[in-house]
Amino acid sequence: MRRKYTKYLYIAGVLLVIGNLLGSCVVFLQVNDTTHFYLVNPMSYIISQKDTLCYKKRTENTADIDGTGFFQRPTIFFHSTYCDKILDDSTACAIESAARLHPQTHINLLYTSPVELKTWNHLLSILVKLPNFHMTGIHVESYADGTEFEKFWKSVVVYNKVVDYKLVAEYIKFLTLHKFGGTVLDKDVIVNKCLDELGENWVIREGESMLGTDAIAMSRSDFNRNFTAMVLRSFSQQIMKGNINVSVAITNSFKNLCPGTDFTETYTRCHGYDIYDGKQFHPIDHSERQQFLQSGSYNKKAHAHRLWDVEVPGKMIPYKTLYAEIAQTFCPWVFSKLNNEY
């Protein structure tokens, strides 16, 4: 009886292995001169995560971005990679602040969510009144088309159901820089000073010796295109290995570009890139982000304040807080709309 039971258990195990093999396929990818194989389950084409379902669909609002001249210059890009909304309150404030301080610059929101009654944020109704603000719906699946990352992007990132919208947002930021150049800002970066004075090509430090990705500017050039490709290759390798840190990817790429550069200095320069102190964009550290909900005054020397997705109780921005002072000063329309409506 025991031998018969063992036989059935063995057969069940074999069938399980065969079933998993039949339910998966091996994709070979070339990343940074190294061939990797990646096991992809075809069922992931059918069973998708809720927050990435829209990445595979086109809607009537999805633009066909044809060529590098699609976006007028100069431009500042924001990216929203949600599937259930187009933006949140902090993003609306970030967009208004950038638009007001850069009236001659095109402020572009690249979004992935379908435009529906449930996804149209009431704040969008006031942002579209800004003359230099533009919205462009992008099809995530085809966003890397025409680049060396097209196969990797579709096979691993878009159709790998463990990838979330935050990782996709990081990758898309560098795809945008790679394809179009310009300035990219994270969706919770509230600009306090005009960024033009920083130059055309710059990055910021994060911590003691790392570079951040919440604010980057790169002009459209072959050199910058090659550099962003270097960052994307490094990022792609991280995804393959499951050890993802885009700050490491960009820092290592700069170290390869400028060996021996001391990134601990307040300001340094590398092959035409200005590297600024992170305090210029996040004078308040992530660990101290609750300061935004306490009384205080914003740092007038900083070019921006990153909110670090600080959670506001309810919807209304509390009066007599640092967040309220920043919002009233740099995104008054959004602040007024939020605090009069709730």
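The above is record 1. Record 2 follows with the same two-line structure.
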Amino acid sequence: MLLNTTHHEKDQKQIIADIVGKPYSLVQKLRMNGVGSKRMIVSEVSPNMNMILNVVSDINYASIELRPKGILVRITKGHKNFTWVIPFYQLVLYKVNGASIHAQGKFIHFANNKTFRENKRFFDRLLAEKVKYDEQYEMPTALWI
């Protein structure tokens, strides 16, 4: 779900909390060594997300925030802010010349540069949280007779 979060609205906060959970507390953030990435350069997005990119030749930036049941990808376009809400069960990550996040028929690709490499620990933590979430819903193994 893609939301325009330029102005904080109570109903948007509730929608985000329902989908990916409430933000971590300060103590939890400290134990996890942070829950947000540094900003990264967006190199490409899916055609249905082109509206959130700068039209002029400015660099587009995005950052990721961990939540208990998913992530928030925050993208800035001029003076507007957009938040892409992705629950863990829809999240797919690819590491191809940077990183690519896919969900809900959309994708965002981050360039492989210094800002991306600074976020390696964050992506490791993100994958660990996704695995921990997926282990809760272990699929039964099929019995072949």
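The first helix runs from residue 10 to 20.
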